[in-house]
């Protein structure tokens, strides 16, 4: 579904690319973990496949159409759903309204369906009394789960997440990974997540490590 072709990126110095000549394919129904040292370029890679920045070299294709042809604004709104390292929720809203707003903005098939939004929040362990509270009065881990719920309620087939379990305890980490696996397998989406935790990576269907400017597929 998503494919990179000879992808390369550097910030200032062309002689020091973060990665180069990257040819990868990601399919729906699968979850992918990306590992790598701090500063290796994982977040940068996600920002390219999320359409937040443009490659220096090469191209990215969604179902064989280059993102440049789809248009990055359309792509970001309708084709991809992002869980950032900082959760970027709509801050003055409740969890429930975060989901309803995201569904409305993206024109999701469940737009306006409160029961659906509540059901997803509940599945991520957000209790009913938290659903209508301002998200700023939630803990970091709770906010992160709301961000994941927002991804689940929208229709975008590509879900990218940057260290989505970074703020979570053991139990919630397990719950969140289970939800990502449901997004991939039951919702038939493509999940690409960056993590520093080998246990988390091991539970994804495929693992890659970014090292020496290349994404190396790890053996199962
Ligand atoms: N806007 C920017 N301008 C210049 N350099 C940047 C910029 N953003 C990131 N970098 C540098 O690019 C490199 C890769 O950053 P990136 O955030 O992609 O790493 P990462 O693998 O996600 O690291 P971490 O695991 O710590 O989140 C780092 O050395 C970082 O300092
Ligand atoms: Mg990062």
From TrEMBL:
Keyword terms of this UniProt record: ATP-binding, Nucleotide-binding, Transport
Protein name (Swiss-Prot/TrEMBL): ABC transporter ATP-binding protein
Gene3D superfamilies membership: P-loop containing nucleotide triphosphate hydrolases
Molecular function (Gene Ontology), one example: ATP binding
Coiled coil: none
Pfam family, one: ABC_tran
InterPro entries recorded: AAA+_ATPase (IPR003593), ABC_transporter-like_ATP-bd (IPR003439), ABC_transporter-like_CS (IPR017871), MacB-like_ATP-bd (IPR017911), P-loop_NTPase (IPR027417)
Organism superkingdom: Bacteria
ABC transporter domain sequence ranges: 2-218
Annotated family: Belongs to the ABC transporter superfamily.
Keyword Transferase: no
The organism of origin for this protein: Levilactobacillus tujiorum
């Amino acid at each position: 579904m998503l494919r990179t072709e000879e992808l390369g990126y550097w910030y200032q110095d062309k002689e020091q690319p973060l990665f180069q000549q990257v040819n990868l394919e990601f399919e729906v129904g699968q979850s992918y973990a990306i590992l790598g040292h701090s500063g290796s370029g994982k977040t940068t890679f996600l920002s390219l496949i999320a359409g937040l920045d443009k490659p220096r070299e090469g191209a990215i294709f969604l179902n064989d159409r280059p993102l440049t042809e789809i248009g990055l604004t359309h792509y970001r709104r309708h084709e991809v759903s992002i869980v950032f390292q900082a959760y970027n929720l709509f801050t003055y809203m409740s969890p429930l309204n975060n989901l309803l707003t995201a569904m409305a903005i993206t024109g999701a098939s469940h737009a306006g369906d409160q029961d659906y939004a509540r059901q997803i929040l509940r599945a991520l362990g957000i209790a009913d009394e938290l659903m209508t509270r301002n998200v700023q009065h939630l803990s970091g881990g709770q906010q992160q789960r709301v961000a994941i719920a927002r991804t689940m309620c929208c229709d975008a087939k590509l879900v990218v997440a940057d260290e989505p379990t970074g703020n979570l305890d053991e139990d919630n980490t397990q719950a969140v990974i289970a939800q990502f696996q449901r997004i991939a397998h039951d919702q038939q989406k493509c999940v690409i997540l960056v993590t520093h935790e080998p246990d988390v990576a091991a539970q994804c269907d495929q693992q890659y490590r970014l090292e020496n400017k290349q994404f190396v597929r790890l053996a199962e």
